[in-house]
Write a structure and sequence with these properties.
- This is DUF3085 domain-containing protein.
- This protein is mostly beta strands.
- The chain has one domain.
- It has 1 helix and 10 strands; from the N terminus they run E-E-E-E-E-E-E-E-E-H-E.
- A hairpin with a 3-residue loop joins strand 7 and strand 8.
- The longest helix has 12 residues.
- It is globular, with a radius of gyration of 13 Å.
Length: 117
Amino acid sequence: MQMTTALLIANPCDDEEDNMAMLCCHSAQGEMFLMTRYPDENELEIALEGEPSTLEGVKVTLSPTLLKIEIAAADADVLNGDDVLEITHDTDAADLAEVELTLQNILKGTGTYISQL
């Protein structure tokens, strides 16, 4: 599955939401992707235009223009039948450090983060 967004919106630690780490974006077609994790939980949640699904073992790769999310084939229903979501983005280079920190917080101990920055 592929999406295109102008901006990845990241918050590594939202103190108003019990220190939840959150990454989201809206596609040019109006689709919304949301990935979150509370620091005291062992799983993360992904929502794509619907109810969030709890997952473990997620692999995320971040480059200057691409965010790639890979999930287990058994969880493909979360991504409308796909086990890979590629989000092409135009996030400003100065904002990518916050995106990276957010992904590290979300995936720590429950997934894999790969930086290509």
